[in-house]
Design a protein that fits this description.
The protein has helices spanning about 1-20, 25-45, 90-105, 130-140, 145-155, 160-170, 175-185, 190-200, 230-244; strands at about 60-65, 80-85, 110-120, 210-215, 220-225. The chain is of the alpha+beta class and about 240 residues long. It has two domains: about 1-45; about 60-244, 3-Layer(aba) Sandwich (Glutaredoxin).
Length: about 240
């Protein structure tokens, strides 16, 4: 049907062109031609198959709850799993504004623990992967969470020299060990596996959070997408605490 309409349109235009060369076109003729062209265009548009509906993220999700590094008490009833990118400005906003309140009210009181999952969006953030490596390399020397905080605090300076400075100057880590870890790409495979895991869940943006009950090696809970304001997290956490 579409090809037929295109052919008709082509013939129609040739006829009109020939008529135009033979005699001047009146305004009424021009208006009629434009009307006809619009109707043909609308008919062609109706022949197009409808676009598939946009895939909606679920409101709840079950994710892995096992991790090498856990922030908070290991027996906390709730866990927040965060998929993050160290160069992502929205992740930085969450870290600076919302996380301190969650730490004070829920983590420090033993109600919530936090697990980070790497999701460096390297196409948009060229320093994100190196930053993630630096946090893991610092973790090898017992300073994972401290390095994470420094990196987020200095998102505008994530080049290799700056990352080394945060680790060796600010955290007093062994410089040779840190540099070798970075140069060898020791944690690249681990980070790559985290990215693949996020993609398998349909998670493609940062920050993305799953806040839920701690149950063995898994966490089933509420999905929170983006750097939402504190009340969004408080509502989810308090509701689950009431059910616990």
């Amino acid at each position: 049907m579409k090809n037929l309409l295109v052919a008709i349109l082509g013939i129609f235009i040739m006829i009109v062109s020939g008529a135009t060369l033979a005699a001047p076109m009146t305004k009424d003729q021009g208006d009629a031609i434009l009307k006809e062209l619009r109707e043909i265009k609308q008919l062609l548009a109706r022949q197009q198959p409808p676009a598939p509906p946009a895939q909606q993220m679920p409101q709840t999700m079950t994710v892995k709850g096992d991790a090498k590094y856990v922030f908070g008490k290991s027996d906390a009833p709730l866990t927040m799993v965060e998929f993050t990118d160290y160069q992502c400005p929205f992740c930085g906003r969450f870290e600076a504004t919302t996380f301190p309140e969650l730490k004070k009210n829920y983590i420090d009181t033993g109600k919530l623990r936090v697990i980070l999952r790497d999701l460096p969006l390297s196409d948009m953030h060229p320093f994100a992967l190196k930053a993630a490596q630096s946090v893991h390399c610092a973790g090898d020397q017992g300073k994972f969470w401290e390095m994470k905080e420094l990196v987020f605090r200095n998102q505008n300076k994530l080049d290799a020299d700056s990352l080394t400075g945060y680790a060796t100057r600010d955290l007093a880590l062994n410089a040779d060990t840190f540099r070798k870890c970075m140069a060898d790409g020791k944690h690249l495979k681990e980070i790559g596996n985290e990215v693949k895991y996020a993609q398998s869940l349909g998670i493609t943006g940062t920050p993305t959070f799953i806040v839920g009950k701690t149950s063995g090696d898994s966490v089933e809970g509420r999905l929170i997408v983006g750097a939402q304001p504190l009340p969004a997290f408080e509502a989810a956490i308090n509701e689950m605490l009431d059910q616990h």
